[in-house]
Amino acid sequence: xxxxxxxxxxxxxxxxxxxxxxxxxxxxxxxxxxxxxxxxxxxxxxxxxxxxxxxxxxxxxxxxxxxxxxxxxxxxxxxxxxxxxxxxxxxxxxxxxxxxxxxxxxxxxxxxxxxxxxxxxxxxxxxxxxxxxxxxxxxxxxxxxxxxxxxxxxxxxxxxxxxxxxxxxxxxxxxxxxxxxxxxxxxxxxxxxxxxxxxxxxxxxxxxxxxxxxxxxxxxxxxxxxxxxxxxxxxxxxxxxxxxxxxxxxxxxxxxxxxxxxxxxxxxxxxxxxxxxxxxxxxxxxxxxxxxxxxxxxxxxxxxxxxxxxxxxxxxxxxxxxxxxxxxxxxxxxxxxxxxxxxxxxxxxxxxxxxxxxxxxxxxxxxxxxxxxxxxxxxxxxxxxxxxxxxxxxxxxxxxxxxxxxxxxxxxxxxxxxxxxxxxxxxx
Length: 428
What we know:
The protein is of the alpha/beta class. It is 46% helix and 15% strand. Strand 5 (155-159), helix 7 and strand 6 form a beta-alpha-beta unit. Helix 10 (248-259) packs across helix 11 (274-288). It is globular and about 80 Å long.
């Protein structure tokens, strides 16, 4: 785990150095994904079944691509009651938070009695992708489904791979709690293609949301335009701002909470105290010895993570805004003051009692967040992502005559004769 002393002139180069290994190499996956998508578009269910058997060793058929009510009841019957209770609590808390996000239609008349309106309506069909295998998370179902539910989306479906025919009970139960009626036992780029183009069995959607591996991410990029997508997400990341006033043990485990996600995950400590930083580093490596996902976390820590030492909090703010992390913990005494100066972060956690991990599950705000510095221009998933906004214009005769001549001038300036005539013929 590298230790970097902040230097304004060289920092961007240093940041690029620790981030270089994380940059997804999409180029060598694009041709593979394009072939799969084209095949799904052409052959539909037959292509899906072929790729499920090839990649997931799954025995899906046209008859059982959709998880039946019998299968849902069977797979969730023996799920630990405490897990069920936790999923329900997460559902309630996340829904309560998102219920406060609202955007309203409006209409008004200008001084010429032109009627101008902005109409808000929910998307009709949304497809949620939830990964399978080692990365299969009920929390992802909740975080992706609830904003759509609150927005009023009527048709929400879900794709989840079932490698070796294994079905994740927690994911299915979370989908059940969210009221999702159709769960497809398919994954990978073929599932994204099915959502984008539709097949005899899988309904075409308007927007695809949810995490996935690099093939899923590339597929989402490829079908964007045919359908909407949430974002192009990279591996998880966390930046923690802490110093000698903080608990080094808590800081170390918080950094590891994201490192254990993926070998390409990133954990960065920003501190004003080198001694504290080294203490945290030492504890990280001690924790690694007992971490079940040790190999994954160690590669993330060794290759993609760092301790950045600043002279003062002004430098800290500058560093954090440049990193634009997915998750930011500010554990210092002046955490609220610092937070007001942070412009670029997906989600901010303040104080020792606010570990990022609580936000992954049931604090309330969404855990689908911008990564790889995209928090500079993007936001986390919300209810707003599931609305369409349509403008409505109804001109009065007086209104068209009053403002039309200026529109004609602009149309002529732009060389668009039919535009100007379309207006002129109505007011001359």
